[in-house]
Amino acid sequence: MTARTAAVTRATKETTVEVRLDLDGSGTTDVATGVPFFDHMLDQLGRHGRLDLTVRTDGDLDVDAHHTVEDTGIALGQALAEALGDKTGVERFGDATVPIDEALVRAAVDLSGRPYLVYDADTPVELVGTYETTLTRHFFEALVANARVTLHVAKLAGEGSHHIKLAGEGSHHIQEAVFKAVAVALRRAVAVTGAGVPSTKGTL
């Protein structure tokens, strides 16, 4: 099978991003963006997606983390599109429901060639370390637009449930469940399970 790998470098006045991606890896990650919680989330994406993933982002963190997170999403989306190539033999569709204690998130992916995001997993606006929770939606908007995939993410349980909130619960768990659910759904969608392109159009 042809190697499904990509290397992308993106440089602007705000950030420099380097991404290396292997869709048929073992989940080995090496991530450094300057935003520790974001690094942790990208590590989850690689490990649970069984992607070999290297990310280096140097951004204007003296302003905030927005450009760093968004531009990393752009570069990772470009790498995903490049690694997928013509998508011959892929499963195309993948979904996963992932729990983390009180949080439960479902994600569904279609390697459709049509960028579309439905994101229904917003949490209260707060900081997890130096990472603002609103950045997760922006990251996936950037990834979806550049990978040209359809992604649905839905929070089924978590913040707002009627129980005593324990340490570590809430936004952190929901954010992590989102990244893990997307990782597993993506792993299933990119798996090579057949021959030809899985579309009546003959192309994706």
Task: Note down, in words, how this protein is organized.
This protein is an alpha+beta fold. The chain has a single domain, classed as Ribosomal Protein S5, domain 2 (2-Layer Sandwich). It contains four helices and ten strands, in the order E-E-E-H-E-H-E-E-E-E-E-H-E-H. It has helices at 36-49, 66-84, 135-147, 171-190, and strands spanning 5-11, 15-22, 29-32, 52-59, 93-100, 103-110, 116-120, 127-128, 131-132, 150-157. The strands form three sheets. The chain has a four-stranded mixed beta sheet with strand order 1-2-4-3, with helices on one face. It has a four-stranded mixed beta sheet with strand order 5-6-10-7. A hairpin with a 2-residue loop joins strand 8 (127-128) and strand 9. It starts with a strand and ends in a 14-residue tail after the last helix. Mean pLDDT is 92; it is low at 160-168.
Secondary-structure topology with pairs:
Layout: E1 5-11, E2 15-22, E3 29-32, H1 36-49, E4 52-59, H2 66-84, E5 93-100, E6 103-110, E7 116-120, E8 127-128, E9 131-132, H3 135-147, E10 150-157, H4 171-190
Parallel strand pairs: 3-4, 7-10
Antiparallel strand pairs: 1-2, 2-4, 5-6, 6-10, 8-9
